[in-house]
Every structure is written in structure tokens, then in C-alpha cells.
């Protein structure tokens, strides 16, 4: 496909719009660290939700999820529903209010509040390095790689040409705009991305002559296996995504979610929470993220499923399926539409790159540079170091682009590694006996167990050990096994070592008002709702309702795509009713948590809620 003048104009206008947005917010961003990295803590919850979606739904969604979709079928929605659905609602209902109430600068400061100095320092340094130097470069790198995989087949651009198009604009934008500019631009970028994906979805249906004709083409092309492609539930046996994988993904990514707001799978999540205007709006952020992200992923995956008719060879083992969305763009887009889709891909890429660079540099400066090397300097100095940190993270990300081939391999590796310590993240909020040694064991011991279970068999295979392949199990069972073994390890360490100092736990309880098992400190509560496990179970039930509602919505739209209109309408109606029930119960739940916090208000001497960063030096 050749570039037309209108395409060049569309891309040029988009780039100028983003740069203009960045420079517009430059003065506000440069006033303070809070402004540059947290938008002055005045970002609406819904806008932060759209922004978080922008960070999660980048071109790697179009390539990674598109590739999975062409190899699976209508049930691909369970890949991201099991990965994100329950996890996001658990994080929003059970933890968002508590994180926002702590009023931290970065969520890593939590460890200084919760654990003794030695364990807190080790954890804060480890997670800061893991986040800024591993997670952010990895996720940014696969985002850039995804952009290359789309721009390559669609517009005949090489990796270097794609990077020349994306990287300078992204870096210049995030340098000048700060977090507020990033969030506002994310909103604009997601509108462009939505328009682009809607257009390609419509063109895909038009290519086949409508939904009914598309379904007929799938049956004709694939025969008996066509029914599996059109199915909405993962089959029991499937080479790529069986039912067991969906269940393993659901448990492995949901249990423990929310207790750490800087997970390797979505490390910038804490930044979204801490920058919201109120604790209640932190829940809104999660809900908007779930709905908007799943809708955009559906718009990317449904056309990719249909594309299997056009390129059936992509369903064969060993095929680079992640090229499918780029091929669709090249085949179906008319003049003018190409410029819009380039702008859409640039929008998705720039939003993720900007988010990752802003958040990664925030952690790098606050939790490593300021915490360990230069504790007392002017804010202008730290902002300069933050911009230098962006360049370092970006350089590492470019290295990922040229050393990784399959995007989903990186994603599965990162998420499986982070799953090892997820249950411990709940324990640090809900169990007073979870101490510093247990926290360190969960993080470092979990990484060790991951290497033993996941990487050990691969090493033995490289050494030509005959029985090495018998130790290799599917990635979803690996995730659950690593999680289970790590949990047994840290529980044993917690019970065999002394509790953390009473004064430390007392101060944390008074400031955070955590739920769960804090029996020795219940006497600190005044009259009001008790923070027992009853509230935890109530919150889990509400989170499940929210998950069911968005899952029904995705299934209903999938039914409609495959011309099952009656099932689609009924399922969407059930989704709306379930969501209304969820929202009503969630409002009441937040009211109970707010009442409990008010009844147990922190005394004036402790109530000063300045960010921990400002009190440490």
C-alpha cells in the first residue's frame, strides 16, 4: 500500500497535536515533583482509568492478542478476562481506597511503613530495581517491537524506521508534559485508537459481506474445526489455550492482586491510584480501566479471528501469527484510512512509552537515587535526574526490540515470575504476623523457586539430560506450582521467626486501618465497623460481581460478531443488570470503609499525611 498525501497530513497533524499538548502542560509539570509525576494529585478517576487502559492496550495488544486470536477463536476473550478481569476488580474494591489514603509519593514507600528498616530497605531497593530497570524496559521494549510488527507488514517500514518515527516524538513529549500531560494525551490517543480499530473491524465485516457470510466462510474453510473457532468457551483440549490455561491464568493472576500496587504486570498502577483526587475515585479508575480495556481488546481480536480465513497458514504451528493485524491493515485499508491507523498505532505506542518512562523514572529517582545516593537536593535536580532516567530506560527498551522475537513469550515470563509472590501481597495487608523475613522470603525465595521450576528444566534440556523434557509442564501449571511452593515457604518463615516490633505494627494499623487478621490491635479501633475478614469476603463477592458483568459484556459482543444476535442481546442485558447491582453494592462498601476510617481517625500528631518521601530525609 502506498502513502497518499492525506495519510501524511493525518499523521503530521497527530504528531503536532501531541507535541502541542506536551508543551501546553510544561509549566505546570515543572513546578514540583508532585506535578511532574502525579499530576498534582488532582486527576479524575475515570480519566486515570482511560490512561491506564492506554498504558495496557498498546500495539503489543494488536500483535500479541491478535496472534493468539487467529490461533484460537471466539474464546480468546478469556485470555484477557482471566488475566485482568477478577484481578482489577479485586484491586479496586479491596485495596484502592487504602493505597490512596496512605498518600504516598510512590507505592514502594509502603514498605517503610509496614516492615522493619532492614527488610523495608531490601524490599524497596529490590522492587525499585525490578520495576525501573527490568519491568519498564521489558514492557516498553515489547510495545516498540509490536509497533515494528505492525508497521512492517502494513507500511513496509523497517525496525529502525519505525523507531525513528516513534521514539523521538514520545521522548520529547514526555520530557515536557509530565504526568498530567501524559494522562490528557492518553485520552486523545485512546479516542484515535478506538476510531481506528472500529474502522478496521467494520472493514473486516464488509470484506466478508457481513457477519453471516463471515461465519459461513469460517465453516467452509475449516470444516469441523470451525465450530471451535466460533466458540465462546475455551475447549478442554487445545494446543494454545485450553480451559485449564484459563483457570490457571485466573487463579495465578488474581490471588494476591492489589496488595502490591507496583506489580511487574502493571507497575504503573500505583501511579494511577496515588494521582486520583479521592480514595473513592481510585475504585472508579479500576472499573473504567476494566471496561475500556476489554472493549478495545475485543475490537482488536475479533477481526484477527476472522483473518484466519484469509491467511489459514497463520494457524499452523511455528507461524509468526503476530503479523496478522498488520496484514489486515495493509489488505483492507483505503487511502486516508492508512494515515488514521498509523496515527492510531502511534497513539497507542506513544501512550505506553510515555507512561512507562514517566513512572519508571519516578521510581528510579525517588526509590533509588534519592533514597540511597542524594537524599537532600532541590526538586529541580530530581526532575532533571528523572529525565535522565527516562533516557536510560528507553535505551534498555530499544535493546529489547532487537533481542526478542515473540511478544507473548516475554509477557508470560514476566507475569509468571511476578505471580510467585502475589499471595504475600495480600498477607502484608491482612495478617499482622506476616513479618519482614517472610516478606523478603516471598520476593527472593519466589524468584529462586521460579528459576528452579521454570528455568531449571530448560537448562537441563540444553545440557542434553535425557529426562529433562519430562520435567517441563505447561506455563499455567508452572505459575500455580511456583505460587504454591512460594506461599508454603513464606508462611513457614513467618511462623518460625519473631513478629515485627509492636510499635511499628501499631503505627501502621492506626494509619492504614487494614482489614483481615490484626487481632492484637483491634483495641485501637473506636466504635464503628470492624476490620475483620467479613469485610474482606464481602469485598471479594462484590469484585466477583463486577468481573461477571464485564465478562458477560464481552461474551455478548462476541456472540453479535458471529451473528448470534439473540444470544448477544440477552447476554449484554444481563451484563448491564449485573453491573448496576455491582455498582450499588460497591458504593455501600466504600461508605462502610470511609465510616470505619472516620471513626478511627488518626490523632493530630499522626494525621499529617505528607508523602513518606518528604519525611525520610
Automatic annotation (TrEMBL):
The keyword Transmembrane applies. Its main location: membrane. One of its GO terms (molecular function) is D-glucose:sodium symporter activity. GO terms for cellular component: plasma membrane. The keyword Transmembrane applies. PROSITE patterns: NA_SOLUT_SYMP_3 (PS50283). PANTHER family: SODIUM_GLUCOSE COTRANSPORT PROTEIN, SOLUTE CARRIER FAMILY 5. Belongs to the sodium:solute symporter (SSF) (TC 2.A.21) family. This is Na+/proline symporter. It comes from Chitinophaga rupis.
Amino acid at each position: 500500500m502506498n502513502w497518499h498525501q492525506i495519510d501524511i497530513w493525518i499523521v503530521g497533524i497527530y504528531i503536532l497535536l501531541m507535541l502541542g499538548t506536551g508543551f501546553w502542560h510544561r509549566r505546570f509539570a515543572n513546578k514540583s515533583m508532585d506535578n511532574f509525576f502525579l499530576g498534582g494529585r488532582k486527576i479524575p478517576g475515570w480519566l486515570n482509568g482511560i490512561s491506564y487502559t492506554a498504558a495496557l492496550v498498546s500495539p503489543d495488544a494488536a500483535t500479541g492478542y491478535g496472534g493468539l486470536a487467529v490461533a484460537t477463536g471466539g474464546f480468546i476473550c478469556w485470555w484477557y478476562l482471566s488475566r485482568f478481569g477478577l484481578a482489577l476488580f479485586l484491586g479496586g474494591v479491596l485495596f484502592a481506597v487504602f493505597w490512596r489514603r496512605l498518600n504516598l509519593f510512590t507505592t514502594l514507600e509502603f514498605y517503610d511503613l509496614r516492615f522493619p528498616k532492614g527488610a523495608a530497605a531490601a524490599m524497596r531497593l529490590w522492587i525499585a530495581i525490578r520495576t525501573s530497570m527490568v519491568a519498564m524496559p521489558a514492557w516498553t521494549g515489547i510495545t516498540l517491537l509490536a509497533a515494528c510488527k505492525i508497521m512492517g507488514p502494513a507500511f513496509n517500514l523497517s525496525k529502525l524506521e519505525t523507531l525513528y518515527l516513534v521514539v523521538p516524538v514520545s521522548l520529547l513529549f514526555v520530557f515536557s508534559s509530565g504526568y498530567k500531560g501524559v494522562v490528557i494525551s492518553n485520552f486523545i490517543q485512546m479516542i484515535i485508537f478506538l476510531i481506528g480499530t472500529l474502522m478496521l473491524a467494520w472493514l473486516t465485516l464488509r470484506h466478508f459481506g457481513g457477519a453471516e457470510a463471515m461465519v459461513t466462510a469460517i465453516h467452509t474453510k475449516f470444516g469441523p474445526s470451525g465450530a471451535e473457532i466460533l466458540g465462546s468457551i475455551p475447549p478442554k483440549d487445545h494446543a494454545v489455550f485450553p480451559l485449564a490455561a484459563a483457570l490457571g491464568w485466573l487463579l495465578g493472576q488474581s490471588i494476591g492482586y492489589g496488595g502490591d500496587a507496583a506489580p511487574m504486570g502493571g507497575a504503573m498502577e500505583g501511579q494511577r491510584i496515588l494521582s486520583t483526587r479521592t480514595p473513592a475515585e481510585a475504585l472508579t479508575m479500576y472499573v473504567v480501566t476494566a471496561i475500556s480495556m476489554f472493549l478495545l481488546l475485543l475490537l482488536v481480536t475479533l477481526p484477527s479471528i476472522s483473518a484466519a480465513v484469509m491467511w489459514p497458514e497463520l494457524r499452523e504451528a511455528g507461524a509468526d501469527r503476530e503479523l496478522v493485524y498488520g496484514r489486515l491493515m495493509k489488505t483492507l485499508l483505503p487511502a486516508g484510512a492508512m494515515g488514521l491507523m498509523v496515527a492510531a498505532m502511534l497513539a497507542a505506542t506513544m501512550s505506553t512509552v510515555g507512561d512507562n518512562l514517566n513512572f519508571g523514572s519516578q521510581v528510579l529517582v525517588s526509590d533509588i537515587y534519592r533514597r540511597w545516593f542524594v537524599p537532600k537536593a532541590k526538586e529541580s535536580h530530581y526532575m532533571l535526574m528523572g529525565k535522565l532516567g527516562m533516557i536510560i530506560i528507553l535505551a534498555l527498551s530499544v535493546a529489547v526490540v532487537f533481542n526478542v522475537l515473540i511478544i507473548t513469550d516475554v509477557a508470560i515470563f514476566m507475569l509468571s515470575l511476578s505471580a510467585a509472590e502475589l499471595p504475600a501481597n495480600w498477607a502484608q495487608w491482612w495478617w499482622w504476623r506476616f513479618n519482614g523475613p517472610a516478606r523478603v522470603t516471598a520476593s527472593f525465595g519466589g524468584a529462586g523457586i521460579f528459576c528452579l521450576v521454570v528455568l531449571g528444566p530448560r537448562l537441563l534440556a540444553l545440557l542434553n539430560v535425557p529426562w529433562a523434557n519430562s520435567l517441563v509442564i505447561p506455563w499455567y501449571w508452572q505459575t500455580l506450582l511456583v505460587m504454591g511452593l512460594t506461599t508454603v515457604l513464606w508462611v513457614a518463615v513467618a511462623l518460625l521467626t519473631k513478629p515485627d516490633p509492636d510499635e511499628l505494627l501499631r503505627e501502621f494499623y492506626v494509619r492504614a486501618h487494614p482489614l483481615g487478621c490484626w487481632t492484637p490491635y483491634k483495641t485501637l479501633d473506636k466504635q464503628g465497623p470492624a476490620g475483620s475478614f467479613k469485610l474482606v469476603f464481602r469485598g471479594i463477592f462484590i469484585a466477583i460481581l463486577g468481573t461477571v458483568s464485564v465478562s458477560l459484556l464481552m461474551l455478548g459482543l462476541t456472540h453479535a460478531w458471529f451473528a448470534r444476535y439473540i444470544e448477544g442481546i440477552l447476554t449484554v442485558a444481563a451484563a448491564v443488570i449485573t453491573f448496576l447491582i455491582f455498582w450499588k453494592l460497591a458504593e455501600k462498601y466504600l461508605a462502610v470503609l470511609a465510616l470505619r476510617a472516620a471513626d478511627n481517625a488518626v490523632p493530630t500528631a499522626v494525621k499529617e499525611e505528607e508523602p513518606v518521601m518528604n519525611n525520610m530525609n
